[in-house]
Amino acid sequence: MRVVLATHNRHKVEEIRDILAGLDIELLSLDSFPEITEIEEDGETLEENARKKAVAVFDLTHILSLADDTGLEVEALGGRPGVYSARYSGENATYQRNNEKLLGEMKGVPPERRKAKFRCVISIIGGGVDEIAVGEVPGRIIESPRGTNGFGYDPLFVPDGYEITYAEMDSELKNSLSHRARALEKAKDILKSLVSARGR
Ligand code: IMP
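^ thats the input. predicted complex w/ inosinic acid below
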């Protein structure tokens, strides 16, 4: 069975490849389809965005498609930045500006109200297939950045059960517990049953 990942992001492709290793599937990425350009993530929810990307790629390739969308949901901010995580600080958003904006909005918020969670939503779309897998990691937002690994909001997020941020973890540890890993484990189960139902 062939599966196309709706991303050009090499880092994501490698992570997904690692987690799905062992399944009887041939994994392709959008690098095999250079004619497919950026698909706009203009939905109001992570689910909508992930599904939109998977549907678009399936329509163009006719190959079972897997797309993800991730957001950081901060309780004290009513779930923001959420679906707007990538562009939280505006048009010219960078990871650093996003982090600064988040810290600014959280200024003065006491420790017990700094709860947040990362949510990763994966949509799998194919002929007659329309599935969603969700992975969440609860944690908290600290008051100043710590650590240099990873990307995005990693230096500000401490997952429950740990005292270090995602950015202080090596990639092996982060990838073993992350929101994306959790969603991918569920996606793996869905793909596994599709492989056994369809054969190769
Ligand atoms: P995407 O849907 O994977 O592109 O993620 C959207 C945005 O969420 C990214 O631009 C990052 O700001 C943030 N994000 C996603 N995954 C992570 C993560 O594992 N650590 C930190 N930030 C992340």
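The radius of gyration is 17 Å.
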